[in-house]
Amino acid sequence: MPKKKNTDQETSGNIPATAAKSPSPAPDPRPPAISKKIPKLAKKNKSRLPRRQKKAQQKAANRQ
Q1: CA distance 17 to 15
Q2: Are 8 and 19 in contact (CB under 8 A)?
Q3: Is 12 in contact with 19 (CB distance < 8 Å)?
Q4: Per-residue pLDDT tens for 24-60?
């Protein structure tokens, strides 16, 4: 038994005729969501040079 076609549907798919005839205005574009991700701490390229300098100075002082 074939299905009966509703009168509120267009022939070009399952879109109701009322929705196809009166397209809704485009919604306002939302601003992009602000990411709440906490960034990782940046690595500091800090060597142990001050400690090495201190030990080198102590060794130099002991030699004299």
Answers
A1: 6
A2: no
A3: no
A4: 666 667 777 777 888 888 877 766 668 888 899 999 9
